[in-house]
Amino acid sequence: MSHSLNEIEAMSKRAGRGAGLSWGLAEEAAKGTRWLSSFGFPGTEMLAELLMLNDRIPSIDVSPVSLRAEVWHAPARRMSPLIAGASLSDCAVRLLERGSITMENVSLPLLAVPFMGGAALRLGVAVAAEWDGARVATDGKQLCVQGDPEALEAKHADRLVFFAPAEMTGRREPVMRADVSADSWEQLGGFSHRTFAPATEESRLRGAGAGLSDND
Fold first, then answer.
1. pLDDT tens digits, residue range 29-58?
2. Which residues are within 8 A (CB) of 173 and not within 5 positions of it... i.e. 6 or more apart?
3. Per DSSP, what are the bridge partners of residue 134?
C-alpha cells in the first residue's frame, strides 16, 4: 500500500499513544517514522515491530540507566531506540564535548537515527551513528547512508555509537510517498484503537439512530 507522509505520521502518533508512549515521545516517534519513510526506509514496519516488542513493558525497563555512564544500557538488556534517541538529543552538547556516546543492546537502531537530526541542528554540525555493518549521518536536513539494507534495518545492535562532528557521505534522496506493508498498517491501527474511549450504554443511546423513543 502507498501512503502519504502525513498519513504515516498521523497513524504513527495514534499508535504510539495507544502503546503507552507519552504525548511528547509519541509525537517524536511519529515524526521520526515519517522522516525514515521519506528516505525510503520501512519506518512503519519498524515502529510496529518495536511497539509490539515493548508492549506492556514499563518504559523504565527499556530506558538508559544513567546518561552519565561511559556506556548506556537498560535494565531489560534491550533499549528502546525512541527513548535512547530522545535521551541522545537531550545530551547533544555532551555528545559534542565527548566526541561520542555508546549504547549497548539497542532494538531496531535505525529508529534512533531521526533524533540525531535535532541534535545536529542544535549543535550546528553533522551527527553520525554506527552499528555492525551500517553507518548513517545527518545534518538535520539531509541523510547519508552506508551499508546494506539488512544491516541498516537490523532488529538489534549490540553496540550503537554516535559521533559528532561527522562527515556526510552517501547522500540518500527523499521521496514524497512511501510503500507500507498491510500487516504493519494493521498493527499500528490496532494500537491506535486503544486510544478510543470504550462505548458506554449512555454513549450508545446518544448515537445516531440509537434513541428509544418511537414517533410512529
1. 999 999 999 999 999 999 999 999 999 999
2. 39
3. 131, 147
Question: Distance between CA 58 and CA 78 in Å, rounded?
Answer: 12
What would the DSSP string read from start to end of 56-84? T--GGGGS-S-SSSSEE--TTSSB-HHHH
Number of domains making up the chain: 1
This model's pTM is above 0.85 = yes
Nearest one of 127, 46, 48, 50 to 89, comparing CA atoms: 127
Within a domain: 213: no
Q: Which domain holds residue 40?
A: 2-194
Q: Considering the domain boundaries, does residue 150 fall inside one?
A: yes
Tell me the pairing of strands 171-172 and 143-147: antiparallel
Higher pLDDT, 12 or 199: 12
